[in-house]
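Marked as duplicate of an earlier ticket. Keeping the data here for the record.
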Amino acid sequence: MTVPDNTFHFYMDNNRYLTAEVGYSPGKKFNCPRCNSEKITFLFKPGFRGIDIQSWCSIIHDEIIELCNVYQIIMKNNFSPLWLCKDCYDGGVVLKV
C-alpha cells in the first residue's frame, strides 16, 4: 500500500498513533461553508484502503470537490473522506463535483 507523501498521522509522544485516522494536506486553500475560514483539514477514517486514499487525494488536490456539512448527506456518504474546520469546528464529508 502506498500513501501520498503529504498525508500524516496523529502521534503521541511515544510514537504510538493518537488516532487511527490519516490526515491529508493538499497545499491549497478551501473555505469552510459555515465560517468561510481557510483552515480546513481532510481526514480519512480507519478502514480506508490505500488505493482509495490516493484517488481521493488526487480529487481533492484537483479541487473537484464540495465540502458538505448537511447531516442527511453526511449519513448517506459513509465512504467519503471527512473535513474539519479548525476555526469553528464544523465538519462533514467531501463530495465529488
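See parent ticket for discussion. The beta strands are 7-11, 17-24, 40-44, 65-68, 82-85, 91-96.
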